[in-house]
Amino acid sequence: MAHRFSIREISRQAGVSSATVDRVIHARPGVRPGTIGQVKQAIADLEAQSTQLELSGRRFMIDVVVDAPARFHMAARRALEAELPLLRPAVFRARFHMRERWGKGSLVRELDDVSRRGSHGVLLKAPDTPEVAAAVQRLTQAGIPVITFVTDLPRSPRLAYVGMDNRAAGATAAYLMHSWLAGRQGSVAVTLSNGVFRGEEEREAGFRSTMRSLGARRAVHELPPSDGHDGAAYELMRAALADYPDLAGLYSVGGGNPGLARAWRESGHMPKVFIGHDLNPENALLLADGTLNVVLHHNLQDDMHAACRALMHFHGALPGAWTPAPTPIDVLTPYNMP
């Protein structure tokens, strides 16, 4: 297996022993396929982050743990890897632990594994559950700071949250919805990917409270969670259109927008207002063709910059304490897409 890194470097990146790395590199038997994949991925990650290896300064190994659909995994990875060369003179390297569906207890076990292995910090996107908060507590007690991003764990001792103000994002969606539907009849719907993510709860709460404060006398229907998958979102939207034939607006908090749009098209009419989150490739296409009216977007690379800066302050590489400000919310239309 061709590579240009030491066994010790690969071992640290993969989180396995040097002996295991040696067996994989020399194709010796006795290593599980999953572990072989870990070692190969570690080498690939080291290659992707190789521009950092020549920089001088403090060195940090961090772990990125994500519970989200696959399209978010790539966006988060690209955002961090784009930021790494800009952090000089500090040198950051990252291990990625990302899944669409973590088995029961497996995300908590992963966090505990990080605690045992050691790390300079964890960037975490995870559900707001007591079990996850307890794992963050254990990491903190082990001296490993945790930065939550996109969605927060406010009941945990995490070091900081980086990302948009989710309640303000929901309020912004309500303001746009109310303005565009002025003088028109019909109810609106809100879709979530999963009700245990604090960020989505805050967006939905901000939307509802602002709709009320603006004097909107519209029914707001919260649809069942879709896990952000297009197929599930399609089926949920089909059922909602049958139950609420007067739907005029849709605020998609948690994704699955291609599936939502397909259900609307098949029904014979599109919503008067369709608001989504994040300018991923699917949403860019829907925004460009007018299916989505607005995408509320924040720059993930800004989140990664803030997270790494918070870790540098924590470890004394930068002076003093520092608290990240919320990432700005960009209101994107077909006419101002980056």
TrEMBL record:
Residues 5-46 form the HTH lacI-type domain. PROSITE patterns: HTH_LACI_2. GO terms for molecular function: DNA-binding transcription factor activity; transcription cis-regulatory region binding. It holds the Pfam family LacI. Keywords: DNA-binding, Transcription, Transcription regulation. Gene3D superfamilies: 3.40.50.2300, lambda repressor-like DNA-binding domains. The keyword DNA-binding applies. PANTHER family: LACI-RELATED TRANSCRIPTIONAL REPRESSOR (PTHR30146), TRANSCRIPTIONAL REGULATORY PROTEIN (PTHR30146:SF152). This is LacI family transcriptional regulator. It comes from Paeniglutamicibacter cryotolerans.
